[in-house]
Amino acid sequence: MVTKEDYGKFETAWCPGCGNFMLLESLKSALAASGLKPNEVLIVSGIGQAAKTPQYLYCNMFNGLHGRALPAATGAKLANHELVVIVESGDGCIYGEGGNHLVNAIRRNINITCLVHNNQVYGLTKGQASPTSDLGLETGTSPSGNYVEPYNPLTAAIALNCGFVARAFVGEQEHLSKLIQKGIEYRGFALIDILQPCPTFNKVNTFKWYRDRVYKLENTTYDPTDKTAAFVRSQECGEKIPVGVLCNRERDTLESHEAAIKKKPLVKREWKPQLLETIIESLR
User: Fold this and answer.
1) Where are the domains of the chain?
2) 113 near 192, Cβ under 8 Å?
3) So what CATH class is 4-282?
4) Mean pLDDT by 10-residue block, N- to C-terminus, for the chain (284 residues)?
5) DSSP strand E in the chain: where?
6) What's the sign of the alpha-carbon dihedral 148, 238, 220, 33?
7) DSSP element (H, E) containing 79
8) Contacts of 55 (CB under 8 A, 6+ apart)
């Protein structure tokens, strides 16, 4: 039986009160509840405070460049599609530097779960405005207030026909853990935007601010297979913020169309270096 303890306990470099602590515990709970052993899981991240998460877990891990977690994870999944591949990083990393990769991961529908620590600032590089920062948010690099319209990742994902789209709040740890489980179980690309307060650099979107606004979709009459309804709910991010599965629709995965991996993972196929040498020679 797999337990949270199998994923280890490490000293972290996060600030006291950071929402990352709750997210890390919820992720470990989800992996254990899914019965996944550490060797069956690969967690890929970019750069940032959120991207340190794989360093605090016993499992396969890869830290890539800023914003480049998704292409690395896609390569890993195609090389060994039997691995459970999870991408996790911050809102700046995934929605900013990695925004183009997110668009194409959704289009391809690779079977990956993408967890975004959304604290609406860049937490590692001293709190400048991120793609999801509210209009008017004052930061060290925008002392007069952020004047750039915030990006709504859930609305964009649904418009791109992402099959599984969810939002969570780290203050609801059990709920978050169950959403991560559902994302892992979904066959295809799953995006989970996780509201994760940064007590050091974001003094507006605090734990209390979110607690006063979030409500669970499960407590309403809501159908996540209705794309139009999902699109409407995804734009609720002011006085009321829905958390839960906004969209859950089936799509063919990228792997299902790759004939080369239907019989077995690429990593388990016989390696013939002499064949590669022959191909190289033929191109000289």
Assistant:
1) 4-282
2) yes
3) alpha beta
4) 94 92 96 96 94 94 93 95 96 93 96 96 84 86 87 96 97 96 97 95 92 94 94 92 96 90 84 86 90
5) 41-45, 60-63, 84-90, 113-118, 164-169, 190-195, 214-216, 241-248
6) positive
7) helix 69-79
8) 10, 61, 63
